[in-house]
Specification:
Blueprint (H helix, E strand, L loop, with lengths): L2 E2 L12 H14 L12 E4 L4 H18 L5 E6 L10 E2 L4 E4 L2 E4 L2 H10 L3 E2 L14 H7 L4 E6 L5 H16 L3 E6 L4 E2 L12 H20 L3 H11 L5 H13 L6 E7 H9 L6 E8 L1
Helix pairs in contact: 1-2, 3-5, 5-8, 6-7, 7-8
């Protein structure tokens, strides 16, 4: 049986079990859930930077899911395609993943159903160097100890929408409680990222968050996955647009008509709050549930 080894443990998040759990618990304390949540949650969008920066934002989605769904059978986690250049979504379809919290199994039946639909292809090797799914897995393990996962890397193209729609159809008919998670960071702004359409400085970073990020977020909240892909391509507003679009397409197929923004921040705001320093570079993070 194939087991994917962790590649960013000890870098993006702690490499030891006790430290990992302690940091998750600390992330959970940092932000409160809104009083009103959807009656059911079928999907979410999370960021995937190091936990120091985006952990409290990402875990908020899993916390909301926990509040509405005490038990989840499988988390289908759509990842960004940072280093994968295939033309179809790539499924890690057999075996397990390992993190400092132990081993979590792949939902092989769900994987088989996805492959049978033709919306994705088997591609476990595509996951070898991709971190955007891995950083979510310990949240699943800690909050949903019995859940399985289905990792899928999703390129930012229209096949992402077809994948989400296929998952929605499969989930509707298989009787399991499956939640789809799309992993993306938002605008990467500043000289470090080669993206400075508004120049450099505080006002430019505010534009990245309040205008560029917000356009993408608003499209997600209105469940418009195709336009999300276009917006990200034209405005560099999301590095995992395919992953986010797949999650939104699945939510729409499952009957959702509106998303809920739990929080929206950026790396510069985190640096100012936690470290007392700022930067000309910034990456946006949002937590959304459907």
């Amino acid at each position: 049986m194939q087991t994917r080894q962790p590649i960013v443990a000890g870098q993006f998040y702690p490499g030891q079990k006790n430290s990992c759990i302690a940091e998750i618990d600390e992330c959970l304390k940092q932000q409160a859930l809104p009083e009103t949540l959807p009656e059911t949650i079928v999907a979410g969008i999370v960021p995937h930077a190091g936990w120091t920066f985006s952990g409290p934002t990402a875990v908020l989605v899993f916390s909301a899911i926990k509040k509405r769904n005490e038990k989840v059978d499988t988390f289908c986690i759509f990842g960004a395609a940072h280093g994968y250049f295939g033309q179809s979504p790539a499924v890690y379809d057999k075996g397990s993943w390992l993190t400092p919290l132990g081993e979590v199994g792949i939902d092989e039946q769900l994987a088989a159903d996805v492959l049978k639909s033709g919306a994705a292809e088997s591609g476990p090797t595509a996951h070898g160097t991709e971190h955007s799914i891995e950083v979510q897995v310990p949240f699943v393990q800690h909050l949903f100890a019995d859940a399985k996962i289905l990792p899928i890397i999703v390129p930012p193209m229209e096949k992402a929408v077809a994948l989400g729609e296929a998952l929605g159809d499969i989930i509707s008919s298989n009787g399991k409680k499956v939640v789809c998670i799309g992993s993306t960071d938002l605008t990467h702004y500043g000289p470090r990222y080669g993206f400075t359409p508004m120049g450099v400085g505080e006002n430019a970073v505010q534009w990245a968050t309040q205008v560029n990020d917000k356009q993408f977020i608003d499209l997600a909240l209105k469940l418009n996955p195709k336009t999300m892909l276009t917006n990200a391509a034209e405005n560099c507003s999301a590095c995992g647009a395919g992953a986010a679009a797949a999650a939104v397409a699945a939510a729409k197929k499952l009957g959702k008509t509106q998303g809920l923004l739990l929080t929206h921040t950026n790396s510069n705001e985190v640096m100012l709050r936690e470290m007392g320093t700022s930067s000309t570079d910034s990456v946006g993070y949002a937590a959304i549930v459907f």
